[in-house]
Amino acid sequence: MAKKKEEITFYYRNEDDRAYGLAGMAVSLAALDALDRVVEFSLDADGPMVSFSNEYYFSGSPSISPKATWDNLIQNFYITSSMVLSNIMARVMVRDREQWPREQIERIHKEMIAEGNESCALEEDEIDAIYERSLMRMRRIFDNPRVHPAVSELARVISRKRRLSGREIIDELHLLQLI
């Protein structure tokens, strides 16, 4: 009998939880110098809360080397993996003031293995390296208690404004001295 694939579902408890998730993702994008890939953050979005620019989705062109296309694909996998981790960390470590969510992070790691294999044809050891690099970087950010007030303030701004362009997020992060 084949083992049934486990489906992992993460949910937001309420609007405040969503705002903290978005704030965490914005902080991770700033840390990765990837805010230029974002068009908009939307608390009210029915689908993804972060809309990326066309360059993010660009899959290649005959005038661009296959290596450059591959590097972009891997970088985007790293960025989205970091965003997922930071979403959870901001909600649990900053909003709830709890220790880093080991069980949820391990579940994300399993999903990253499946996604990295399917979308990037990466081997498990390659995915593990990306996961470890992302986890270490996001933990360094969200373990820092001096960052917590700024993340909380960014979540409040997101709750109040509902929708922010990539440029507005950059401006808010500058005001909060996060970039």
Name the helicity range.
55-70%
Fold-level CATH name: Methane Monooxygenase Hydroxylase, Chain G, domain 1
Q: What is the number of independent domains? A: 1
**Overall body shape:** globular
Compute the number of strand runs. 3
CATH hierarchy class name? Mainly Alpha
Q: List the quaternary state of the chains.
A: single chain
**H-E string:** HEEHHHHHEH
Task: List the SSEs and their pairings.
Elements: H1 15-31, E1 38-42, E2 50-52, H2 54-57, H3 66-95, H4 102-120, H5 124-142, H6 148-161, E3 163-165, H7 166-175
Antiparallel strand pairs: 1-2, 1-3
Helix pairs in contact: 1-3, 1-6, 3-4, 3-5, 3-6, 4-5
Describe the structure.
By secondary structure, this protein is mainly α. It has one domain: Methane Monooxygenase Hydroxylase, Chain G, domain 1, CATH 1.20.58. It has seven helices and three strands; from the N terminus they run αββαααααβα. The protein has a three-stranded antiparallel beta sheet with strand order 2-1-3.
